[in-house]
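User: Assemble these into one structure.

Assistant: Restating your components, then the assembled model:
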Amino acid sequence: MTHVDPSRMANAIRGLAMDAVEKAKSGHPGLPMGAADIATVLFTQFLKFDAADPKWPDRDRFILSAGHGSMLLYSLLYLTGNTEMTLDQLKHFRQLGSLTPGHPENFHTKGIETTTGPLGQGIATSVGFALAEKMLAAEYGKKVVDHHTYVLASDGDLMEGVSQEAIALAGHWKLDKLIVLYDDNGISIDGPTSLSDSVDQVKRFKSAGWQAELIDGQDQQAIAAAITRAQKSNKPSMIACKTTIGFGAPTKAGTAKAHGEALGAEELKGAKEKLGISLEPFSVPDDVLKSWREAGSRGAAARKEWEARFAELTARRRTEFERRLRHERPAALAKAFKAHKKALLETPQNIATRKSSESVIDAIVTAMPEFVAGSADLTGSNNNKAKSAIDFSAKTPKGRFIHYGVREHGMAAAMNGIFLHGGFAPNGATFLVFTDYARPAMRLAALMGTGVVYVMTHDSIGLGEDGPTHQPVEHLAALRAIPNMRVFRPCDAVEVAECWELALNRIDGPTVLALPQQGEARVSLFASGSEVEIAVAAQKQLGERGIASRVVSVPSLELLLAQPVEKRKAIIGNAPVKVAVEAAVRFGWDAVIGPDGAFVGMHGFGASAPVKDLYQHFGITAEAAVNAALKLLG
Ligand SMILES: Cc1ncc(C[n+]2csc(CCOP(=O)(O)OP(=O)(O)O)c2C)c(N)n1
């Protein structure tokens, strides 16, 4: 190993970041300059990675949550020898077509794990990465899955509300392989964070079940010691690293002026002289570059050892692991869908679409081991938990149903991380109206093309009594407005199955399944002949009152009653109120509506009059059917 003073290694990052921002005349030099020591320690001593293979499955993940500091990441990719990240790319920072856009984009630049920029998203997404690691390790063992997720987060990341949801989840799940390095520089755009913040972050994290400590983030030995402690912890760890934004800049260091604009020629020169960096733009001394390149290939041996361990798995397990990481769906899934749809066509079901969604999940879950459902509370209302599903928890990492608590945003961000980590196809549920709470993460899902599924129930005014706070009206439009977001609103059980199939097979973008609450019929209306029309009119009137009902046309009572018991039950359904409408006497109908069902029809002989008048006279009308239903509903 070439030995180079580690502060010179950090200065290479500082120099490149300053030069690139200067050339682009836009960007953020302050964070890379301040956090350069943290990054140097992490990348040269701890991060398990191999620059030659940025996609190696058991690599450690590094997430720059403060995406505005992207030059930190681009410098690291160049210095460690990522083949695509050439010096030329750094010279074209923020230019059209370069691999160095303003904020890191995982779908654009190799070696970047997730897209960041909207503060808070990176740290919240990282929880999904760490969760996926834990779940996959539980299935495949530590020989194959054993890596850390490191995050560099800024003041802004920790100010954003979503960070609280993320921190709470990680602490609760004891995601001990998650290590957050907090760039505690106390500066944001407006000036010192004391303008608007007085949170003790160490206490905040500790109260959420994390190990947390405060260190000098400019002291490389202290950083290394803290990461070592973090690796040993059985909790997630947060290391608050006190740093100076724009470290080395003669007048701008420690001030908001170092945050978001080029330093300017004079300040840049002063910083380079102070730090002992060549004034020649984009130059890195040979020995420093060599040492960085060694850091980039440091993980090659670990990768090869991993490959050897992986080769020890049975061929079947290897293929399955690789299939899952590629997000390729198993052949059994298509078969399970086919069988389910066939059964639906043979035994038509008239149940709420969210209920039929549950039956889809039950039908396919065993065919798809990567299926990971979850709900932001409301599990009982959203119906996306398979009957066979076990809850995920710190103690049951093989559980594949995740209780996210009342955290829609944290759930959506974690789902991105779960998908991006690989090995799982996450879906998460809440009410459609609360997509507003999850929207920033949903938008990133669409931008990144993560194949996640949102199960959004209670999709319209049809949810009834909860009223306008819970009734989405603009949400379908708002979701459809997001490029690459696919929105489905299925009408019946078959469509629900088809939409689920399309959603689960979509691996290049997110899907919303908007499912109504109503439809779980509270009233079943049975009728034959002309009275089917009356029943349909009654259904409409009931719907206007927010009461879900179903109409069953019974052309032959005998044939219905002659069906096998299961089929008969499915047709009759289990709505609590049953009403039969037929312009004849009740006899025979009790077998369908039961003795407590309501009958709208004849109770004696008829009379001579025009037909329309007769129906009115004998009360065989939609209104009468509605009233009968309302009476029984109480
Ligand atoms: C959700 C969100 N809101 C606002 C911004 C705009 N923004 C970019 S950087 C920044 C200040 C962040 O300060 P800090 O996190 O302390 O970063 P540092 O100053 O240390 O670079 C803001 C408000 C953003 N990127 N994301």
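Residues 28, 30-31, 66, 68-69, 117-120, 154-156, 160, 183, 185, 187-189, 245, 259 surround thiamine diphosphate (CB under 6 Å).
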